Amino acid sequence: MEGIRKKNAISKSKLVFMVLLAVLLLIQLVRPQKNTKASPAGKAFVDTFKVGKQVDAILAASCYDCHSNNTNYPWYSEIQPMAWLMDKHVKDGKEKLNFDELPSYGPRKLNSKFTQIIKQIEQNKMPLTSYLWMHEGARLSMDDKKLLIDYFNSLTDNE
Ligand code: HEC
């Protein structure tokens, strides 16, 4: 009796494992569309606002992946459910702020976006913590923060 019960227990866990494996394989087939465009991320913004090299480099390392029309996808973005999580961050991020769209905004909307950016950086809310786990280089140093805040302050009219 003992032996039989044990055997059953093993085959049940085997079944669960196989079902999980099948689900994991199946979800690989459903892929979100990638956020990529021919023109480099942030180019329109950099050209319009005469952004310096240093500021552009920081934004490229820390912000453009979720706030532009061009995400730089890492290898694990090919694997579900990572691709979905990333897709959600990019969609939500772009909805709030898209550097590639800033040049088409009027002065009022621009001012509000720049003020939001300053606030997010000052409050250490961006880049998202989950992004920093896999992108150590995206972490803003004190110098990076100061550069960005000074730059965006120079674009706003609320001194
Ligand atoms: C991993 C993706 C990701 C990265 C990288 C990222 N953001 Fe975001 N950002 C989001 C998401 C998602 C939202 C919307 C949800 C939220 O506010 O938490 C958002 C919202 C914002 C907002 C709007 C906040 C508001 O008031 O509603 C600003 C401004 C912003 N981000 C600035 C930045 C800046 C500046 C950087 C770089 C220093 C950056 N983000 C990096 C994903 C990201």
UniProtKB/TrEMBL annotation:
This is Heme-binding domain-containing protein. SMART domains: Haem_bd. Residues 21-156 form the Haem-binding domain. InterPro entries: Haem-bd. The lineage of its organism: Bacteria, Pseudomonadati, Bacteroidota, Sphingobacteriia, Sphingobacteriales. It holds the Pfam family Haem_bd. It comes from the Bacteria. It comes from Albibacterium profundi.
